[in-house]
Design a protein that fits this description.
The protein has helices at about 15-25, 70-85, and strands spanning about 1-10, 30-35, 40, 45, 60-65, 90-95. It has about 110 residues and is of the alpha+beta class. It has one domain (about 1-100): 2-Layer Sandwich (Alpha-Beta Plaits). The strands form two sheets. Strands 2-5-1-6 form a four-stranded antiparallel sheet, covered by helices on one side. Strand 3 and strand 4 form a beta hairpin. Helix 1 (about 15-25) packs antiparallel against helix 2. The radius of gyration is 16 Å and the shape is globular. This is P-II family nitrogen regulator.
């Protein structure tokens, strides 16, 4: 097992390119994007009642894992984007379980 930081971002799909650019600038090259996210928070309900799937008004969820130093850089770069355009970011500790297939036998 290997300690990593988990970064979870929920934001408008219109900001996806800015967020992904931020991750890549911080050399966090692995991430997953889930589109058309719905749910509820203290800010209200986000739903797809208006059939907005795939529209620019939908939300995205981005999850990524990286080292602690990279996570600090991501937060510093991401904060202005979230402050200007909205959204939220969660940072937590996680453990990566590496596959035995990744180990070279040479």
């Amino acid at each position: 097992m290997h300690p990593v930081k988990r970064i979870e971002i929920i934001a408008s799909s219109m900001e996806q390119r800015k967020i992904v650019d931020c991750l890549e600038k911080c050399q966090v090259n692995g991430y997953s994007v889930i589109r058309d996210v719905t749910g509820r928070s203290d800010r209200g309900v986000v739903s797809d009642d208006f059939d907005l799937a795939g529209s620019t008004l939908s939300n995205i969820y981005i999850i990524s894992f990286c080292g602690a130093d990279q996570a600090k850089a991501v937060v510093a770069q991401l904060r202005p984007i979230l402050n200007q355009y909205g959204g939220t970011c969660y940072l937590s500790d996680a453990m990566e379980i590496r596959s035995m297939n990744c180990v070279s036998t040479i």
